[in-house]
Design a protein that fits this description.
- The chain is an alpha/beta fold and 132 residues long.
- The chain is built from six helices and seven strands, in the order E-H-E-E-E-H-E-H-E-H-E-H-H.
- The protein has a seven-stranded mixed β-sheet with strand order 3-4-2-1-5-6-7, with helices on both faces.
- The C terminus is likely disordered.
Length: 132
Amino acid sequence: MVVIGDGVLKGGDIARRVAACLPDTPFYLFDRACQQAHNVGNLRFMPWQTPGQVYSRALVTMVPSRWAEAFPRAIIESQFLGIPVVASARGGIPEAIADASMLVDNIEDPAEWVRRIQARMPAQPAAQAARR
């Protein structure tokens, strides 16, 4: 799971709550403010990297934004690379996402995120290992 941005408006706290519900799934939180990679449970806090390095870890991209993003590049980049996206239904996100069934209306409800993420996670352990 890849999350870009760890601030409140980007939904970093939402990602943490969802990660707690999926303890066997690594969550990579990339943020420009992170100076050094470190782990806390299944959370991997990562300094900013090139898009290729970021998306090489992604089985799914999570975009839990609270604010009305105009047209999030992370969604377009992920979809272009064939990486499924689960995102909040805010701002221009519904126009950017290819699969509207992966939009989360109640973004504060971790269970809603978990349902959609589990619907998009690859079933084969080999696929997961290949992306890590």
